[in-house]
Design a protein that fits this description.
CATH class of the largest domain: Mainly Alpha
Low-confidence stretches: none
Largest sheet: 5 strands, mixed, barrel
Number of strands: 8
Strand order of the largest sheet: 1-2-3-5-4
Distance between the termini: 50 Å
CATH architecture of the largest domain: Up-down Bundle
């Protein structure tokens, strides 16, 4: 049995028996791991107050290769992103990020780039509530790249010509030019402003000024394209229940 210490994000928790909790972690050192916090639901448990989704923590746990669920030893806070009455959209998009990680990353797959992307995205949403949706868009775009499914914003996937006015082809999971769109029946046209936003995210990443390039008029389109693109390349639908909070609000 080995002892591992690592920074981690809490993805979700599941009550177990009368007093314990199973915690899904996304760790920097070991990727996605499940641990059990024995007695974690007791009033005097040392784990109380830490076992909440979206918390950024430092954990020590015992691991054994023959076990699917490891044993949590200690936990300390690194950063509480949403301590002070966050807005609904902040929680919805932040929760969608950790749900996306939980559904798209396989267990025990270490990826420090994706881990840091997730931490940075949650921290940005915490400090910029008005840009929560745009930060989620940027996260999805960067995640597809980190997973090896980089979206080609420069050339048509069919003819190879430069993309001036592009469309997202649902059948091939790629961007195609206006000429090639004639031969596909299931294409989402992409506004030039939307393409500029994606190219800016590709080159710069998360920033206040950059994310303000996202225009309200193409918000639904960009959500549809990014979710469809990632689902296509994962080869299964990525249904994020966390986004229901936004749909209900609207």
């Amino acid at each position: 049995m080995n002892l591992i210490r690592t920074p981690a994000l809490i993805l979700r928790t599941i009550p177990f028996q009368e007093t314990s909790v199973i915690v899904r972690l996304f760790t920097k050192e070991q990727g996605k791991v499940a641990v059990i916090a024995k007695g974690g639901r007791r009033l005097k448990s040392p784990f109380r107050g830490y076992l909440e989704s979206l918390n950024y923590v430092d954990v020590i746990y015992y691991t054994k290769q023959t076990r699917e669920i490891q044993l949590l030893s200690t936990i300390e806070s690194i950063e509480f992103f949403f301590r002070n009455q966050p807005e609904i959209e902040q929680i919805a998009y932040a929760s969608a990020i950790v749900e996306c990680i939980d559904k798209s990353i396989r267990d025990q797959h270490k990826d420090e780039t994706i881990f840091q992307l997730t931490v940075d995205s949650l921290r940005f949403i915490s400090g910029n509530p008005a840009l929560s949706r745009e930060a989620f868009f940027a996260f999805l775009f960067k995640l597809t790249d980190a997973l090896g499914y980089k979206m080609n914003l420069d050339e048509c996937s069919i003819c190879g010509k430069p993309l001036t006015r592009a469309g997202y082809d649902m059948k091939s999971g790629s961007l195609i030019c206006q000429e090639c769109r004639k031969y596909s029946s299931d294409v989402i046209p992409l506004d030039p402003e939307m393409m500029n936003f994606l190219k800016a995210v590709e080159s710069v990443g998360l920033s206040d000024q950059l994310l303000r390039l996202a225009n309200e008029k193409f918000a639904d389109e960009i959500m549809n394209v990014l979710m469809s693109y990632l689902s296509f390349h994962l080869d299964y639908p990525l249904n994020l229940k966390s986004l229901d909070m936004i749909r209900t609000k609207r």
